[in-house]
Write a structure and sequence with these properties.
The complex is a heterodimer of chains A (about 160) and B (about 110). Helices cover about 25% and strands about 35% of the residues of chain A. Chain A is of the alpha+beta class. Chain B has about 110 residues and is of the alpha+beta class.
């Protein structure tokens, strides 16, 4: 993975529960399904475990996310690789993705601080075109309108 | 169909301003009929039907016939070709962490 050309998603939350309980909810297969809401096969919080998630397919990609666990520190840290996509899809949803998800837990005054980092996203080649698309439907549609107008102008 | 082809079909479908307005109206409603769309669009029912046909072909809307009516709804995945992984997973993880918070509340009130 070339870290100089990648971006990452970070989400932090303080949960009013003990780290041991948060850890159990994050890592026990049955509980994990209830919050992650994706069918998964073979997950265990054990180093070396390989497992999959089934997500929405796109084009030639079957929607399967392939994961492997390189690091587990009980009640503190869970790391797994998150790979998917298909080379026939150049960018956007379904493009090849070779990323890593890290959950870190630490004790906070009122419970547990959870930090999630999903790292290793290749920067889209046409980043400008995608820059404004995360503001919900309206933003997306407006951006598409502008892009379409540009495309027509260029033809 | 290649992803690139998908992207151009979606962009073409949304390049017409009236069609884009029709599409935005559909995304704001759970489900909506042609008659309701016609009332709010200022064009004829025939024109709205043509726009719906194009949106359907692009995978942006789905239809559900019921009795004499046909209900239209937005297909969120229709825009998937245009949304990158970062946006997809940014939203995904925020939702999932919110689910986790709710689940923990149930387990340990």
């Amino acid at each position: 993975m070339n870290t100089s050309n990648t971006r990452q998603i970070e989400v932090e939350a303080v949960l009013p529960h003990a780290p041991e309980l948060v850890w159990k909810t994050l890592t026990s297969g049955e509980l994990m399904k209830r919050w992650l809401r994706m069918p998964s096969t073979g997950f265990a919080a054990v180093v070396g475990t390989k497992f999959t998630y089934q997500t929405t397919p796109a084009g030639e990609w079957d929607g399967i996310i392939r994961c492997e666990v390189p690091e587990v520190v009980q009640n503190e840290r869970l790391v797994y690789s998150w790979k998917g996509g298909h080379p026939s899809i150049p960018e956007g949803y379904g493009a090849v993705m070779d990323t890593v998800v890290t959950f870190s837990l630490s004790r906070a005054a009122n419970g547990t601080r959870l930090r999630l980092v999903h790292a290793g996203f290749a920067i889209p080649r046409n980043e400008r075109a995608y820059a404004n698309m995360s503001d919900g439907w309206k933003g997306v549609v407006k951006t598409i309108g502008e892009l379409s107008a540009e495309e027509e102008g260029a033809q | 169909m290649t992803r690139q082809a998908n992207i151009s079909i979606v962009m073409r479908a949304l390049s017409d301003p009236t069609r884009r307005t029709v599409y935005e109206r559909i995304t704001r409603a759970d489900e909506i009929t042609v008659a309701e769309l016609t009332r709010s669009s200022g064009v004829t029912q025939g024109a709205v039907s043509q726009h719906l046909k194009a949106l359907k072909l692009a995978g942006l809307v789905a239809e559900r016939p019921e009795g004499r009516n046909v209900f239209y709804r937005a297909q969120p995945l229709g825009l998937a070709p245009l949304v990158d992984w970062i946006d997809h997973y940014g939203q995904f993880w925020h939702e999932r962490i919110a689910n986790l918070r709710e689940l923990l509340k149930k387990i340990d009130p």
